[in-house]
Amino acid sequence: MAVARSEPAEPVELDLSEMIGHLLRACQQLHVAIWSEVFPAGPTSPQFAVLHALAHEGPLNQTALRSKARLDRSSAADVIRRLVARRLVSQVRDPADARRKVVRLTNAGRAVYAEATGRAQRVNEAMLDGMAGPDRATLTGLLNSLLQHHRGLLDYQADEAAVGGTAARP
Asked: Which residues contact 152 (CB under 8 A, 6 or more apart)?
């Protein structure tokens, strides 16, 4: 049986400086470089996001936590495992559903988070350096709109998924 060959497609003319994925990847590389300089011993940016979510929401099940921190399933599991190993968070069975685990911030985690907030703000300022206030607000607004529009692709949950269905305050 002969396989029909189609003619090679003609390349489409692209300008990488207008391709959102390329720009976001380059910005992520910039963010990692700045974060690594400001936080040479950690926590990583995803770890900070988990600590931040727990500091503001209280104990969360893993699904809610990964949604709040905007992490995919495998990244969230790895980040939580590393934070447990560093004793910055603890995991217990969810009292409302024994099949799930609840992640809690430990006292050590609370201290690390408190110390890291100022440095995280410095990273943010370094990323936005050279941009005027209105441009900063526009950029973050547009990125949040993009994430909100595509949240289903990332399997983020609605805000209902804290322990027992409501967010517990620390």
From this structure: none
- CB contact at 8 A, 73 and 79: no
Residues β-bridged to residue 162? 60
Q: Write out 12-47 in H/E/C secondary structure.
A: CCCCHHHCHHHHHHHHHHHHHHHHHHHCCCCCCHHH
Is this model's pTM higher than 0.70 or not?
Answer: yes
Give the pair of three-digit tokens for residue 38.
């400001």
Q: How many helices (H) and strands (E) does the chain have?
A: 6, 3
44-73: pLDDT as tens digits: 999 999 999 999 999 999 999 999 999 988
Q: Measured between alpha carbons, how far is 19 from 161 in angstroms, rounded to an integer? A: 35
Q: Under 8 Å CB-to-CB from 60, ≥6 apart: which residues? A: 53, 54, 68, 102, 103, 161, 162, 163, 167
